[in-house]
Amino acid sequence: MNQVYILVAEDDADDRFLMETAFAEKGYTEQLAFVENGVELMEFLHNVEANANGHNMMPGFILLDLNMPKKDGREVLKELKENHRFRKIPVIIFTTTKNEHEISRCYELGANTYIVKPVGFEALLQTIDSIHSYWLNIARIPG
Q1: pTM score of the predicted model
Q2: 8-137: what CATH class?
Q3: Which terms are listed as keywords in the entry (predicted)?
């Protein structure tokens, strides 16, 4: 069985640190892989795929910020869901954007879930716990 990891696309260093701290504080053992923009995310997945040697090395899910440099989350989401190798990876939009039009647009592009980043560390811990529990323990994703 392959070790599950979580891919986090987040350009803000403080947010990356808080995410890493939250996962560690909850005692989760999955490796977190961080990328800072959409270009890095796509390069990361293509590199993983190229080195997989027939094993499923895709992340358990992707936490995707919308507002990133080089290639934003909307562009990445569209690219992921149009790619037959990556479209099954659950993509959780994890952003500060609360705009209803943006939320609808992300679901139209294929987002699996849209979550507005919580304010405060305790709320982040609860949100991470819910995401982790649902996507790694409850939901069933085709191989």
Answers
A1: 0.89
A2: alpha beta
A3: Phosphoprotein
